[in-house]
Amino acid sequence: MRFTSLPAGAAHYAKTGESLPVASLKAAGAADAILLSAMGLPQVRYPDGTEISPQIELRKAFGLFAGLRPVRVRAGQPGPLTLPEGREIDFVLIRESAEGLFHSQGRGEVSGDAATETLRITRATSEKLFRFAFALAASRKATGRGPGRVTCVDKANVFRAFAFFRGIFDEVVSDHTDLAADHAYVDATALWMVQKPWDFDVLVTENMFGDILSDLGAGLMGGLGLAPSADIGLEHAVFQPCHGSAPDIAGRGVASPHAMILSAAMMLDWLGERHGNDPLRDDGRRLREAVESVIARGKSLTRDLGGSADTTEAAGAVMRALFPQ
């Protein structure tokens, strides 16, 4: 596997006025997959006051409509919740990544004492999103990771756009009678993610709702340092940790490497599925399980997870778990 480093992000924007150079975008489009680092800086912003977000530009450029945020807590793994005996958390939140309330990003209207952002949901994107969700649920069921259930998370009791979203979901359900399907309002889902997160399998929702719920999912695992993600389209995919660049600790060598390693594991899984390559899939699984074993032991953890290890030590523990002597 060969890696090519490409410039992008807030620091690059501060130097050049470009957040995602055309050459970087072109090279990323030619790659088999894109592994993206955290690249925002709160003090570096566009003229309209919004933060630099090349990851959103990539989603729009490559039609990356499905944002995957896996949430996994194994029995015995430390975290904010005490799991009932025999329970584990293992679900995937799929966030629509191209539309929703992010549709008008950079184009919102501010006039006098009022501001307007436009939420947009289309049939074309929603159908792709729901088909992807059911395919993922079927794959998880086949490998014993879930019961084969997709939950549409919306606010269809209040907003016509979400009633439309739910209606499209129900149409797609009819093509997947071998799987279970249900609905949940987003506020209730947030409650249930804390009360009974082990009940979920695959959740699919709008962009902004997914953005918020994915951070709650990260909290269930112990923090953003354990939260990987993927943004997937029909031809391209981007993999990156959910956390930001943490400028307060930048350069000190104390940041958690786990979310990036888990994102790389997701990349291997996707490449394996896309190319029918079992060794790649196996490597993705082994890498994920190596991180999980280190977390479960509670040793060589960075301070965000209650330990004192630095980045190199934490990554070294994963390496030793992956290749035991």
UniProtKB/TrEMBL annotation:
Gene3D superfamilies in the record: Isopropylmalate Dehydrogenase (3.40.718.10)
Coiled coil: none
Cofactor (UniProt): Mn(2+); Mg(2+)
Molecular function terms, GO-annotated: magnesium ion binding; NAD binding; oxidoreductase activity, acting on the CH-OH group of donors, NAD or NADP as acceptor
Domain Isopropylmalate dehydrogenase-like stretches: 1-318
Pfam families, alphabetized: Iso_dh
Keywords, ordered alphabetically: Manganese, Metal-binding, NAD, Oxidoreductase
Name assigned to this protein: Isocitrate/isopropylmalate dehydrogenase family protein
Organism, scientific name: Thetidibacter halocola
